[in-house]
Amino acid sequence: MSILETILKSQSGGLVKQVSSQLGIDQGQAGAAIAQLLPALTQGMKKNVENPHVLESLLGALQGGNHSRYVDQPDSLGSSDTIRDGNSILGHLRGSKDVSRQVAANAAQKTGLDTGVLKKMLPMVATMAMGALSKESKGGALSALLGGGSQQSAGAGLLGAFLDKDNDSSAVDGLLGLAKKFF
Known about the structure:
Layout: H1 3-9, H2 14-23, H3 27-48, H4 52-64, H5 69-72, H6 80-94, H7 97-111, H8 115-139, H9 142-146, H10 151-163, H11 172-182
Helix pairs in contact: 1-8, 2-3, 3-7, 3-8, 3-10, 3-11, 4-10, 6-8, 7-8
């Protein structure tokens, strides 16, 4: 299952409903916006795990953190703690706030939603992405998911496969097609 599938299906669509409610947009807009924002985050994740230290840090966070709560408890998405954690995740994945602003601006052009709404959504999407990865890593036992070999290559392979289900080196097409099925 991809990150987007996990997010869209979790809690019978509860994550999308919660984002919709928190931001005052309809569920179709929320799903489309998530599908636009998520590829930028997952591409940042894929790029970052090429560094063994970053991969080790991510794996530690997935094993030791409680990120799955973001997927299991949709009502937590709007809390100040979740937003703070999401902004921290964004900082690790995308670097500067300027990059996050550009991601929101690009998604605004494609969805027709206001850039300000998408900026508010980014930390929520970041926490949902980490939650989905956390569930996947715990559901299959992280060592089994890595499947042997060096931790770096196995982890990058796992993450790459999870983020790019159709193996075309781009998560964007698959994510957008999947989102359209739900909304």
